[in-house]
Write a structure and sequence with these properties.
Structural class of chain A: alpha/beta
Helix content of chain A: 40-55%
Oligomer: homodimer
Number of strands of chain A: 7
Strand order of the largest sheet of chain A: 3-2-4-1-5-6-7
Chain lengths: 342, 342
C-alpha cells in the first residue's frame, strides 16, 4: 500500500523539477477515472499544492471566427520569446475521447507546441462540465507546480463553460472579431460582464477601421456595466494575432490588471472565493451523484421532473418527496447492516 | 387527520373565489415554518396549482433612488383603472420579522393598497434567499389562483435576489434613474442582461433630457448584448411615475413582450425551464440542509472550508472527504438500527 505513495513522491519531485513527461503523466492520472489512479492523483496533488499560486491564470473565450487559436499561438510565442514558460489547457465538455474538438487537432498550434518552454494539453475527454472543469483546474495546478508562469485556459463556450473558466482564472479575456455590431453573435448573455479584458482581434487590413469602431463601442458599453471589483475597470484593446501586432500591449495590460488586483488584496480574495465556490460545487455535485446512484431515486427524479414541467406538481413538493425517500432511509435500508453481524 | 385536509379544501375554494382574507391566510400558511402549517400549505398549493398560469408575472428591480415604490404604485393604479387585479409581492432576504424593509412600511403604496382589486404582501421575513424566494414563488401562485391577472414581484437587490426574481417571472424589468452614465451604480453585474425591459424613470422636468440620453445609451448597449430569446429583443423606454406619464406605453410593451413569447412557444418553454431549475435548486438546498443537520458533518465542513481557502487542501479532495463521511455511514450508523430488533 505504501508503494504507490512512494511513486507519487517521486513523480511529484519530477514535476516540481519541470520534467514535461512527468507533468504529462501527472495529468493523465488526474484525468483518469480509475479509482486507484484517482487516489494517486489526490495524493500527488496534495504534494504539488504548496508549490502553486505564483502563475498568472489567464482565461480566454471568444466568438467563433474571432481567431482564438491564432491568438493563443501568437501570444504564446510572444511570451516564450520573453523567457516565460507557458501552459495551455482547455475546458470543452463536448469533446470526445477519440478526437477532442479543441487543441486536439495536431495541425493547430504546431509552431507553439514545438517550443520547449510550452506545454499544451487538450481538454479532458467527455463527461459533465463539472468533471471536465475539475480536471482542468487540477491540471492547471500541476502546470503551476511545474513552473509554468502563465497558464492559459481556453473555453469553447459550450454549456456554462465560460462561467466555469472565468471562475478559475485571475484574468478572463473575451476575444472578438470586428463585425459591425454583430461581434457578440455566438457569445452568451452575461459573458461580457465576466470579462476583465476585451480584445478586438483582426485589427489589420480592411478590418482595421471596423476594429477601432468596435473597440469604442465596447468601451462605451463596458462603462455602463459595473466592474467586478473597484480595483480593476475592464479594458478594451485591439490587436492582430495574424500580424503579431498589439500583443505586447495586451500582455502589459494583463500584468497591470494583476498588479492592481494584488495591490488591492483582491487577487487573494478572488482566489479564496473561487476555492469556496469550487468546494461548494463539488459537494453539491457529489450529493447529486449519490442521489442518482440510487436507482429508485433516479427513477423518481425523472418522474418528478416531468410532473413539475407539466405544472402538475410544485418543485418544492417534488423535492421534499424525493429527499424524504433518499435521506430518510429507503436507500439507507438497502445498505448492508454490518453492525448486526459484528 | 382528515380535518386539516378538509380545512384546506375549504380554504382553497375561498382563495379560488378571490376572497382576499383567504388569500392572506393561505400565504401565512405558506410562509410559516411550523411543520403542520407546511403540510397544510403543500396540500393547499396542490389544489391551487391547476388554476395558475394565466397571470402576467412581472419582475421589477432597480437602482436605489430610481423610484421603484412610486413606479409600482403608479403602474398599479394605472392597471386597476383599466380593470386589472394586481398583486404585489417582494423578495428581500434581508427583511426581518419585525419590520421588513420592503413594502412593509405602511406609509408606502398607501393609495394603491386601498383599492379592492389590489393585494400587497411584504417580503416573507428573514431566512436564506432560497427560502424567501420559494415562499414568494408559492405566494405568487396563490395570487394567480385567486384571480390576480398581474403579479408584480419586486426585488431589493440583496445577494442574488435579482437572479432569483428574474427566474420566476415572464418579464423582468430594470428601473433606472437618469444619472449621466452613473445609472448602473448599485446594479450588480449581469443584471442588465437579465432584463426584458429597461425603464428610465423620472423622465420629467430638469431630468427629461438626461433620461432621453440614458435611453439612447442603453438602447445602444443592449444592442451589443445577446437577447435571451430570438423572440424578444429587450426594449428601453422612458417614463415618469411621479407624473404618471408613459405608463400606458410601458404596459403595452409588457403585453407585446408576452405576445411575442407566447407566439414563439417561448413563454411555456421559459416557465418549464424555470420549474426545472427551481426543482434542482430545491433538491440541492435540501441535500445541503441534510448535510448541515448532521453536527459532525457541519463541523467538518467548516474545517475543510478554511483549509481550502488557505490553499492547504484541494476543494475536490475536501468534498470527497466530507461526502465519504456523510454518505458512507458514520451519519447512517447514528440512525437507530431497527432491522436488528424486528
Amino acid at each position: 500500500l505504501s508503494e504507490p505513495r512512494e511513486g507519487d513522491a517521486q513523480l511529484a519531485e519530477r514535476v516540481l523539477k519541470g520534467d514535461r513527461r512527468a507533468l504529462a503523466r501527472a495529468i493523465t492520472l488526474i484525468e483518469s477515472r480509475r479509482p486507484d489512479h484517482q487516489e494517486q492523483a489526490e495524493s500527488l496533488l496534495a504534494r504539488l499544492l504548496p508549490h502553486t499560486g505564483q502563475a498568472i491564470r489567464l482565461g480566454i473565450t471568444g466568438t467563433p471566427g474571432a481567431g482564438k487559436s491564432t491568438f493563443i499561438e501568437a501570444i504564446g510565442r510572444h511570451l516564450v520569446a520573453q523567457g516565460h514558460k507557458v501552459a495551455v489547457l482547455a475546458v470543452d465538455p463536448s469533446s470526445r475521447r477519440s478526437g477532442g474538438s479543441i487543441l486536439g487537432d495536431k495541425t493547430r498550434m504546431q509552431a507553439l507546441a514545438q517550443a520547449p518552454q510550452v506545454f499544451i494539453r487538450p481538454s479532458p475527454a467527455g463527461g459533465t462540465l463539472g468533471g471536465v472543469a475539475r480536471r482542468t483546474r487540477e491540471a492547471a495546478l500541476a502546470c503551476e507546480a511545474a513552473g509554468y508562469g502563465v497558464v492559459v485556459i481556453e473555453t469553447v463556450g459550450v454549456g456554462q463553460s465560460e462561467t466555469a473558466v472565468a471562475d478559475m482564472v485571475d484574468c478572463f479575456t473575451l476575444l472578438l472579431a470586428p463585425g459591425g455590431g454583430d461581434e457578440l453573435q455566438g457569445i452568451k448573455r452575461g459573458i461580457i460582464e465576466l470579462a476583465d479584458l476585451v480584445l478586438v482581434n483582426k485589427a489589420d487590413g480592411d478590418l482595421l477601421a471596423a476594429a477601432k469602431r468596435a473597440r469604442a463601442d465596447y468601451q462605451a458599453a463596458l462603462h455602463l456595466l459595473r466592474p467586478a471589483t473597484p480595483a480593476w475597470t475592464p479594458e478594451v484593446l485591439t490587436c492582430s494575432a495574424l500580424h503579431e501586432e498589439g500583443l505586447e500591449a495586451v500582455w502589459q495590460t494583463i500584468c497591470r490588471q494583476r498588479g492592481a488586483l494584488e495591490q488591492a488584496g483582491e487577487l487573494a480574495a478572488r482566489r479564496a472565493r473561487q476555492a469556496r465556490r469550487w468546494l461548494r460545487t463539488e459537494i453539491e455535485a457529489g450529493l447529486l451523484d449519490a442521489l442518482r446512484a440510487d436507482p429508485a431515486s433516479r427513477r423518481l427524479l425523472a418522474e418528478l421532473e416531468s410532473e413539475v414541467e407539466a405544472t402538475r406538481l410544485l418543485p418544492s413538493a417534488a423535492a421534499r418527496r424525493l429527499l424524504r425517500r433518499f435521506l430518510a432511509g429507503d436507500a439507507a435500508k438497502d445498505r448492508p447492516q454490518q453492525t448486526c453481524t459484528s
